[in-house]
Amino acid sequence: MNQIQESIYYAPLIVSIKVSIIATLINLPIATILAWLSVRRKVKYSFLIEIIGIIPLALPPVTIGFLLLVGLGRNSLVGTLMNQIFGVDIIFTWWATALAAAVVSYPLVYKAISVGFSSIDFKLELAARTLGANALSTFLNITVPLAYKGIFAGIVGGFVRALSEFGATSVVGGNIIGETQTLPIAIYSSVLSGDNTGAVILSSLSAILAVVTLLIYNWMSKKIEYKNRF
Amino acid sequence: MSIKIDFKIYKKYDSGFILDINGIIDDGITAVFGPSASGKTTFLNCIAGFLNPDQGEIKIGDQILYSDDPKVSLPIHKRKIGYVSQELTLFPHMNVRDNIYFGYNLLPGHERKISPEYVINFLDIKNLLNKNLSSLSGGEKQKVALARVLSISPVFLLLDEALVSIDKKASGKIIENLKRIWSEFKIPIIYVSHSISEVLAIANRVLILEKGEFQNFVDANELLLGTDMISSEYWFGFENIKRAEVVSKIDSNKIIKIKIEGVVFKISEEEIFLNEQINVSISSNEIILSKIKTFDTSVQNIIQGKIISIKEFQNFALVCVEAGGRYLSRISLASARKLDLKVGGEIFMMIKSNSIKILS
Fold this sequence. Notes:
Chain A contains eleven helices and no strands. Chain A is an all-alpha fold and 230 residues long. In chain B, the strands form four sheets. Chain B has a six-stranded mixed beta sheet, sandwiched between helices. In chain B, strands 2-1-4-5-6 form a five-stranded antiparallel beta sheet, with helices on one face.
């Protein structure tokens, strides 16, 4: 296999990993804070947080991509501000692809973390407060460690979902090799161009990546479980 | 200087239940006794800061914890109240050491008056420090929970049904620990319970709470006399819990003598030793009363005493007998009438040696 062919296969792999990591990093703090506000603090507008947390699941990814295109495009308010302040267009960049992957994978991250938070006995948090811990210290020392299973599941679920994302990312990111072309987009391109061998190789890479991620998840779950037991 | 909680609490729930109480709780161990849904836990929650009253004021010494005018509500983490609930709420992701040091590590240096090391030695739990919570017994967990709250140098201790999850045998040790905590650290304790046996074993004073109102504020010893303050169902299965000292070695008949408030009792027990301090429990149902001293009986303990109160309920009578300490005997109404018991009269308590149970 020559170098050009290798780059055709590896570039989408690297872009996919990069996009998925950034999407997960975007989702993690947002989902954690919103799940905490909704599940632990039960704030007044919790139902809105719940709706936001679930709506990307109900929409076709292409619709999400289109909405992001409209919302972040050069003619939009955000697009105009980005262009005037930073001199950049976000659409059809690597960042837009990551953002689209983040939006699509958000429900998985949010739901898993919510379940993690809701499984905690609130009396443990109250106990920490009586022992002198303020709200932040209680969150960091009690809530997060006790919700680790949900948070961890959210990270992995979100990452895997971002890896497999196609509809939204292709609309806002396009198909630029080495920039916005993720594995699913590369597979689609290969199929369209009749390159069945390429499609098989890319599909295999995609499957290996998913399996490796899940194996790492299992291994780390057991490691954390073991550490907590002793 | 003794510290006290001065409170005036009014709290109304959507269900219509109203807690409307005021009073002062100071030194010593004060029990809050009442049936379920009488407002005991709401009272504790208001003091700990988990709930705010609708109206009122709560002060510890000069520190205002809550006031509706001017509006003040001291955050929970600044109240320095050691709270032990019946679930104990130990942190499951931490070992014993980390649980005990959790609050202590958050304290500013100048507020660290009680060191965890001292508490660990005091409660004799050094061997547990590296253990995971899942390997502890109920009694050990209870000690860890107490060590954890003592390590924050609390101004007050609140214990909510703290013996509920403990087996009867281990409860004696905890009762003893609470008394030792009071005498060692001089931290006032509020102990909430719906068990009259526990209340009388632990507290100096009792606040009786019923339907959201304090019915009375009495000396614990007086509660045995004023039994009409508490309805009959709470006296079923009442246990006389007493502190005792072992005064003899086991004899050839497998009997050991113990002394309770100056009176010697015989018990059938092998695993206690001379001079050991123990807690024992004698069920009120197992104290038989007799007006004459009977020698031809299998009962090992025939203790002379004086009747100081008789309270008749619908289907039984509670007789309080003074014999060194005070004991309650629960007998049938028929027996009470047959014996024609009179306050001030002489009586013999007959207690089988194996009816005296060791708690610790």
